Amino acid sequence: MMKKMFIPPMLLQYAKNNEPFDNDSTFAELKWDGIRLIVSNMDVFKLYTKNTNATVKYPELHNPPIPKGTILDGEIVVLDEQGRADFEATNAGLRSNKKRKPVVFMAFDILYHQGVDVTGLPLVRRKQLLEETLMETEQYRIVRPIKGSARDFFKIVCQHGLEGIVIKKKDSKYEKGVRSWSWQKVINYQTAEVYITGYSKKEHSWLLSYQEGESVRSIGTMELGISKSARESMMPVFHSFKSGESKDYVFIKPVVRCRVKYRDWYKSGIMRLPVFEEFIV
């Protein structure tokens, strides 16, 4: 008897030094910049993000072009006019129904086929089953491996400003809920030099600002990549340049600079997912 079920998705590791690589035992595919989603069409149709039951949220994905007994893994995205993923619009749609734009489900794996768990099969075989099972529509599409070099593919992805690629072992099993080295992501990071203009009193985060002409503009907070030694070594410097404070933050003058890597910019002018790299002396 089939059941309605949530399967914790297999997670990605970062490729070493965030560099693409070529190997006969792997292939690469585009990493769509959206929200992970499990489409479960068992006894009852369900949609699951990593943390929530999202079935009611996305009516455009109801009546999927797959038979009963099928569970798919993939990414939901809102596409812009150029056919590129708009993460900000996708994320806003998850948080609020106001002016939510329709999403497209980009399927890259199949976990159940005809009611049978196929996660133990090699990825290449699961890809074949995915092609046989899913009839593509405007709302449901298949993510296919590219033919050729992952290194060359990543260069093209960067040229077009896309998020990155995923390099997967062809014989990899689907490891439920595991962050596995069988799937490695390579992200198209941007880099920038920014000012540290404050720090949180409660969390290990810094306020960042960006120089535009003669003025310095706030661009949000940074939590990633800040080591304990970096925090401790800079605290005396931060104290000496303190310019004020609020309930949650201590503000400092725009003197200390650092280099960060980041995904892109939100329309509001906030930097998306900055990661500390090094101080600029």
Automatic annotation (TrEMBL):
Name assigned to this protein: DNA ligase
InterPro entries reported in the protein's UniProt record: ATP-dep_DNA_ligase (IPR050191), DNA_ligase_ATP-dep_cent (IPR012310), NA-bd_OB-fold (IPR012340)
Keywords, in A-Z order: Ligase
Family named by the database record: Belongs to the ATP-dependent DNA ligase family.
Chemical reaction(s) catalysed: ATP + (deoxyribonucleotide)n-3'-hydroxyl + 5'-phospho-(deoxyribonucleotide)m = (deoxyribonucleotide)n+m + AMP + diphosphate
Highest taxon, organism lineage: Bacteria
ATP-dependent DNA ligase family profile domain segment(s): 96-186
GO molecular function, one term: ligase activity
Pfam families xref list: DNA_ligase_A_M (PF01068)
Tagged with keyword Ribonucleoprotein: no
